[in-house]
Amino acid sequence: MARRAPFLLLALLTCLAVGSAAFSQDAPARLSRDDAREFAIFLLRERQPLAAREIAFGLLQADAEDSAALNILAQSELALGRLDAAEQAGRRAYRAAGGEDLQRFTAAFTVAEALSRQGKLTSAQLWLRRAGSATDDKRLENAARQVYRGVESANPWRITGSLNVAPSSNVNNGSENAGVTVGGLVFVNPAALPLKGTSVDTSLVIERSFKSDGRDFTLGFGARDTRVFLTSDSKNVSTPALRNDDFSSSAVELSFGTRFVPEASRAVYAVNAGLSRDWRGGEALVNTFTLSGTRSWVHKGRQQRRVQLGYSRQDRLDSDNLSANIWSLVGTVSRPVEGGSLALDAALIRTSSASALVANTAVSAGIGYAHGSEVLGVTPTLRARLTHRDYDDIALSFTSVRRDWEVELGLEVAVPDLSVLGFIPTVGITAERNVSSIPAYSTEQVGLRFGYRSSF
C-alpha cells in the first residue's frame, strides 16, 4: 500500500468531516478553528505539508484532543516521510475521534498507510480492518477492503483462524443400529450410539510465502482442535460414564506449496504437500502425507474452473490394517448469477486398504448458492451434497457388501451489521443422513453451528 493510498485521499476525507467550503489564500490572519482546519487541508491539497503541520500544532495547543487536527498532523507527517510520527498522530486521532465515524476511518486509514510504508504489513491489515469497521458508509468500507487485499497480497505472512461452536443431535456420528451379533447375541458399544453434545472447533494456520525464479512458494504450519462436550444423559449411557476426551481430537500439519503460471498460459498451476498427525482421545491416531496438483483458470471472463488431483497416505497407529491410500479427482465450477454466485463440484475418490472396512470407491456431487445481498439483515448461503460409497469386499462381521448413500443439506446466514474488525458472525444449520446396506452404518444428525468469517 506504500504508494497506493496517497495522503491526498485522506486529506479529502478529513475535509468532508470538518466542512466542504472552499478556502482562499486571501483569508484573514486570525482564523476560527474550523477555518484553520479547512486552511490546513487546503495546504495539504496544495502539497504544502510543512505549513499544514504548523497549523495542526496550533490547533492542538488549544485542544490536544482535536481529532481533526490530529488527522491533519498525521497526514502532514506522512507527506513529509516521517512515518513513525504519522503513525503516532494517527493513533491519537483514532482514540480522540470517539463516535465521529469519518474521523475514525481517516485516522485508521492513515495509520495503516504509515505501517505499510514501514513494512509492517500485518499490522497495517489490522488497521484497515479497523477503518472498515469505523464507518457505515459502504463506499469507504469497500475502499478499505480493496486496499486490504493489496496489502494482503504483498504480505509474505498470512495468519488465519476459525472458531465454531456446534450443538448436535449426533456429535459422534453414531448409529441407532450400532451392535455386533455373536452367537445370536447382540453386543452394543455405547460409544457407537448417537450421542448429543456440542463440539467447539478451533483452528490456526500460519503461512510464509516467498518468490524464486518466477514462482511463488509457501511454507505453512497449521493446528486444529475439536473439543466435544457430551450432555449428561449421553455420558451416562454406560458404566463407567463416557468422557468428553474420548471423542475430542486435535491435529498439527506442516505444509509446502508452489504456485506458477507457465508462459503463454492463462491457467494457474499449484502443487501442495503436507505432513500431519492426528490425535483422538489423547492418543496419537494417524499420520498423513498429502500431495495435490491443481489447475485453475477463468472461462469466458466469468466462469472460474478448477481441477485437482490428490493423493493421501494415511498410516493408522492403532491398527496398521486400517491404513489406506486415497486418490481423488475433484472438479469445481463457479460463476456469478443474478443475485449471487453459484458453485458446482464433483469428485471421484478411490480408497485402497487391506481392510474391507475401509477400501471403497466414492462419487460425490455438490451445489452451493451464495446470495449477494442482504435478506432481512442477513446474507444466506445454501448448499447440498450427495455421496455414494461402494465398498470392495464383505467384512467378516457382515453378511453383505456395504453400500452407502449420504445426503447433506445446509443453510448458513451471516450478519454483516454485527461486523467487528471485518469479522462477521455466522449461524448455520446442517442435516445429514447416511443410508447404508449395513444398518450399523446408517446415521443421521441435525446440528447448529455458530462461528464467524472474514468479510475482507
Characterization of the model:
The protein has 9 helices and 16 strands. The two termini are 16 Å apart. The protein has 456 residues and is an alpha+beta fold. The strands form 2 sheets. Strands 1-4-5-6-7-8-9-10-11-12-13-14-15-16 form a 14-stranded antiparallel β-barrel. Strands 2-3 form a two-stranded antiparallel sheet. Mean pLDDT is 89; it is low at 1-8 and 10-29. α1 runs antiparallel to α4.
Indicate the structural class. alpha+beta
Question: How do the SSEs run, as a string of H and E?
Answer: HHHHHHHHEEEEEHEEEEEEEEEEE
Summarize the main sheet. Answer: 14 strands, antiparallel, barrel
Spatial shape: elongated
Distance between the termini: 16 Å
SS elements, strand count = 16
Number of helices: 9
Major β-sheet strand ordering: 1-4-5-6-7-8-9-10-11-12-13-14-15-16
Describe the oligomeric state of these chains in a short phrase.
single chain
List low-pLDDT spans.
1-8, 10-29
Q: What proportion of the residues is helical, as a percent range?
A: 25-40%
Instruction: Give the strand content.
Output: 35-45%
* Rg for CA atoms: 29 Å
Mean pLDDT: 89
List keywords for this structure.
single chain; 9 helices; 456 residues; alpha+beta; two-stranded antiparallel sheet; 43% strand; 14-stranded antiparallel barrel
Describe the secondary structure blueprint for this structure:
Layout: H1 7-18, H2 33-45, H3 49-62, H4 67-79, H5 83-97, H6 101-117, H7 121-133, H8 138-154, E1 157-168, E2 180-182, E3 185-187, E4 197-212, E5 215-230, H9 232-235, E6 249-260, E7 268-280, E8 283-299, E9 303-316, E10 324-337, E11 340-353, E12 360-371, E13 379-391, E14 403-414, E15 423-436, E16 443-454
Antiparallel strand pairs: 1-4, 1-16, 2-3, 4-5, 5-6, 6-7, 7-8, 8-9, 9-10, 10-11, 11-12, 12-13, 13-14, 14-15, 15-16
Helix pairs in contact: 1-2, 1-4, 1-6, 2-3, 2-4, 3-4, 4-5, 4-6, 5-6, 6-7, 7-8
